[in-house]
Amino acid sequence: MDPSALTQNLLSPPILFFALGMLATLVRSDLSVPPAIAKGLSIYLLVSIGFHGGYELHRSGLDVGVLGTLGVAALSSALLPVLAFFVLRMRMKGEDAAGIAACYGSVSAVTFITAISFLERGQTEYSGHLIAAMALMESPAIVTGIVLATLMRTKTEGDDNQRPEWRAMAHEALANSAIVLLLGSLVIGYLCGDSGWTTMKPLVKDPFQAVLCLFLLDMGLVAARRLGDLRRSGVFLVAFALIAPPVQASLGIIAARLLGLAEGDALLLAVLFGSASYIAAPAALRLALPNANPSLYVPMSLGLTFPFNIIVGIPLYASIIDWWWA
Fold first, then answer.
1. Helix (H) or strand (E) holding 48
2. Of residues 109, 108, 106, 110, the one with CA closest to residue 214
3. Could you identify which of 34, 177, 266, 301 might form a hypothetical disulfide with 276, taking C-beta atoms 3.0 to 4.6 angstroms apart as the criterion?
4. What secondary structure does DSSP assign to 65-105, as a single string?
5. The model scores a pTM over 0.85
6. Which tens digit of pLDDT belongs to each residue from 301-324?
7. Among 294, 298, 239, 250, which Cα is nearest to 272's?
8. pLDDT in tens, 109-144
């Protein structure tokens, strides 16, 4: 990994604000971000990235290459939890393994946004349809996690009466506010085209970095509060949270190479493969898998995998892609 890339990422404003949030919690400062403001920041980021992606998709258009990338993204989200599930199942019960696997098949929008910021600092171009790929990868992993948990419960307990509420779960997975905002903004950006981008750019483009810093400050506060849960999770789960991201990202890099993607798009696909959800998937899992322990999958994805990816993972994946694509 290029040391300059790591240093550049560590000293970027978003990462430093994330570190400031963690430090504030560790020194027991009274610093906090009101929940309503934190939710507003999330809405802004999702709308901004969705609209921008729709505009970029409008510029590039839909072709066989774009549809192939979207198909690979959706399929990987459905299959990655299967791989994670069988690894986790060696040390834990079925529903906990399925819950964690679903989080690691789904994606982190904030990690993806940080990767975009990384590319823009290096003036590396990327395609808007990768944003559509991110939106498509939210739900298949959740469905796979539910199916795996149901199959294991039926097999191990022989209980046919605990049937999942499929309709409610499908609604939770597909109508999740994050997915609605992303896909809705993507469609609006696509339909509005150049004239819409000219109108919306001062709102969705220019303040983006500053809002991201505020959001990551809040994420740092939340992540530090979860450190106690991580200590109780054990060495196996801590190791999984740090090893799974580069393994899955490596599969994303291979897929990007086979698809013939450019370097910027390859990095974004690798980040999508290697990130873990700590917002959309946990929200759906609380309804879908009520017996899965959220004190396991939330601290793993938020407290370990998220900081690993934004501090080490993104520069590492970029270095591998630079070397392979050269």
1. helix 35-60
2. 110
3. 301
4. HHHHHHHHHHHHHHHHHHHHHHHHTTTS-HHHHHHHHHHHH
5. no
6. 887 898 899 889 999 999 999 999
7. 250
8. 888 888 988 888 888 888 878 887 887 787 788 778
